[in-house]
Amino acid sequence: MTRVRVRGIYATALTHLFREAGLDVVAASPPIRERFDADFETAEHDAVVWMTSDRQGVGVAATPDAAEAVLAVLRDVGLDTFVWADRAARGAVFDAVVERTVGGGAVVDLGEGREAYLPFDAADSHVEEGDTVRVQVHEPNPPWGRDRPVVGTRIDAPGGVATLERGVDALVAGTPGGGADHELARTTELLDPDLPENWGVRWECDAEDADMTALGDALDTVAAVAGDLEAALEAATDPGDDAPRLVVASEETAWAWFGRDSRFALDDVRREVTATMDGHHRVKAGSETASGAVDFAEALGVDTGAFPFDAVTDQFGPREGDTVALRHGKPDGRRITLGRGEVTDRDVENGRLTVERAMTAGGVYDELDVEREAGDVATTRFTEGNWWYPTVYRADDGTVKGTYLNVSTPVEVFPDAVRYVDLHVDVVKHADGTVEVVDEDELQDCVDAGTVSPDLAERALDVAERVRRAVEN
Fold it and tell me: Which structural domain range is residue 104 located in?
């Protein structure tokens, strides 16, 4: 049975979904144990699922078989859930080429368009532009974020209960408390594990809740991974002219981004386990402060009846006069910021936000084929939960240059940003009143590439057609 460790604001709902799918959730947190009123074994996992730092989704690191089972569950969460595989998988070893040094580290090329960040203090020797260095991915990061994956020259066989570290001339490389006299250090000697030569045990926090059998099994699991890594590294040629290249990867890493509909679907799942307000995950995804407020409201038994857009924006923003970023996601996982604008109006009754941006000169507005000039203003109206939003472009004298109606996953208005994933197909209204649907071919390309599901594409085309008819009338 596939064993999964889950953490973060989506943990309760995902634990329920994983258990229903026949997966074994291990090392559950105390709140999860209480909510499910179940015994969760503390054991080494086959897959770990964690919340991304921006709270927008989850990362998954797993063995190939476990990854298939876990990702099948995640893909089924909702129509606007996106899942992307990551070449820079956790624990993958690369021969990387140093592209440039920046601040306290270097940007390195892993190949196939993937970059990573190597902190100088994570390198075992000085590096400079043009060097080839063998590195391992220690901290993967999602494709929609600003941060590159973090790599280092230390080689680990990562685990949840125990990790093995290469090049350590000691049986125990570390314990949760950091002390050599930790009880786990003495336990390691009693277990007498069969480890590859020069690999030391670094016990993780979960080890403190595991029994002797689980500790021994965990060591056996990571020892097998370390053995495979050692064999691959010994067989690999020295980094050279064929870099950048992947040397070996023992795990797969993938990222799941949840759209608004998916967050509400997770609310429904969580509600089967414990009291859950409408918009639980939507509000928690906004900020850590908002997350704490949700916990407090649910502890009091507050029943909102519907997603409280007015209360959420009143308490956490945005409000009139605030500045928000337009986080324009792409179906392939990238995220583009379309600039920042001022909130000029907030209609809490209809869940609507109006944002104005001053445009810079240069180029033309896509599909409108109208020159972009200094003094132009873009006025965008975002409605929480809508599958589209309009932007009107005006010259400095107020003349309308055209309107762009963008079809996307349901809009979410967070305290400092508006988020969605662009679905390519759009409706444009030219200054002369002509209306047309554009970029259907780009949407089809995404379907062919597997980044947009056929069902989601069908929904996008249906939305575009309904918007076209409404604008024409």
Answer: 93-154
Q: What is the average per-residue pLDDT within 194-217?
A: 96
CB atoms within 10 A of CB 345: 12
Name the average pLDDT for the chain. 96
What is the tens place of the pLDDT at every residue in 374-433? 999 999 999 999 999 999 999 999 999 999 999 999 999 999 999 999 999 999 999 999
pTM, 2 dp: 0.96
Q: Do 16 and 163 sit in the same domain of this protein?
A: no
How many domains are there within the chain? 4
pLDDT at 263: 98
- Residue 277 domain-assigned (yes or no): no
Residue 325 DSSP code: E
Compute the distance between CA of residue 258 and CA of residue 81 in angstroms, rounded to an integer. 5
CA torsion through residues 123, 129, 135, 136, sign: positive
User: Would you say residue 76 lies in a domain?
Assistant: yes
Same domain, 102 and 114: yes
| Residue 462 and residue 338 share a domain | yes
User: What CATH number has the domain bearing residue 130?
Assistant: 2.40.50.140
Q: 91-125 in b/e burial notation, b at 16+ Cβ within 10 A?
A: bbbbbbbbeeeeeebbbbbbbeebbbbbeeebbee
- DSSP annotation string for 95-147: EEEEEEEETTEEEEEEETTEEEEEEGGGSSS---TT-EEEEEEEE---TTSSP
Percent of the chain that is helix, strand, coil (3-state, to 5):
30, 35, 40
Residue 203 corresponds to which tokens in the numbers above? 């016990």
DSSP result, 257-283: EE-HHHHHHHHHHHHTTS---TTHHHH
CB 97 within 8 A of CB 243: yes
Is the same domain home to 216 and 335? no
φ and ψ of 368, to 5 deg: -80, -25
210-215-221-222 Cα dihedral, nearest 10 degrees: 100
Shared-domain flag, residues 149 and 224: no
In whole angstroms, how far apart are CA 365 and each of 166, 226, 369, 398, 455? 54, 54, 6, 17, 30
Dihedral sign from CA coordinates of 417, 394, 381, 261? negative
Q: Dump pLDDT digits (tens) for 297-329.
A: 999 988 888 899 999 999 999 999 999 999 999
Q: Is 422 exposed, middle or buried (0-12, 13-18, 19+ CB in 10 A)?
A: buried
Report the alpha-carbon distance of residue 381 to residue 472 in Å, rounded: 19
What is the structure's pLDDT at 39? 87
- Nearest Cα neighbor of 100 from 113, 89, 85, 115 is 115
Q: Note whether 433 and 415 are same-domain residues.
A: yes
Task: Determine contact, residues 333/255, Cβ cutoff 8 Å.
Answer: yes
CATH number at residue 460: 2.40.380.10
